[in-house]
Amino acid sequence: MLRILVAATMTATLASPAAFAQEGTAAGAAGGAAVGAAVGGPVGAVVGGVAGAAAGTAIDPPPPEVRQYVVEQPADTVEIQGTVAVGEALPDTVVLKPVPNYQYQYAVVNNKRVLVDPGTRKVVRIIQ
Questions:
Q1: Most confident residue range from 22-36, 42-56, 75-89
Q2: DSSP characters for 23-71?
């Protein structure tokens, strides 16, 4: 029982949503299973796979239309202190613009076009 709890805790810690943001559900499940197996053996792999898949599902990559829309829109860049990274929240000073017909919003921050979860203001994808 302790082994399962340790595996679940390690998986939750190491399988952060930011680590799997660019990969989605499959990578989340695979990564979680690998971490879980290393810590808790076969049972840990199952627990880690489920936790990793849940993390990956929450932040699956957006459809191509969303990326295309964001790339094509004119936008002024906003400079902020620090780096822009997946999983990091943008400051309230960054104005987010909606993506029509989708839950995402976007901004250009430090010369990077980013998709943002409007509820948390966290970057879910950096569009190159």
A1: 75-89
A2: T-HHHHHHHHHHHHHHHHHHHHHHHHHHHHHHHHHHTPPPPHHHHHHHH
Two tokens, residue 18: 């930011």
Burial bucket for residue 123 (CB in 10 Å: 0-12, 13-18, 19+): buried
The model's pTM: 0.55
Residues whose CB falls within 8 Å of the CB of residue 40, separated by 6 or more in sequence, listed in order:
3, 4, 6, 7, 8, 10, 47, 48
Helix (H) or strand (E) holding 77: strand 77-78
Nearest to 68 by CA among 26, 99, 109: 99
Half-sphere exposure of 119 (CA within 13 A, CB side): 1
Alpha-carbon distance of 14 to 39, in angstroms, equals: 11
Residue that is written with structure tokens 């808790």 in the block: 40
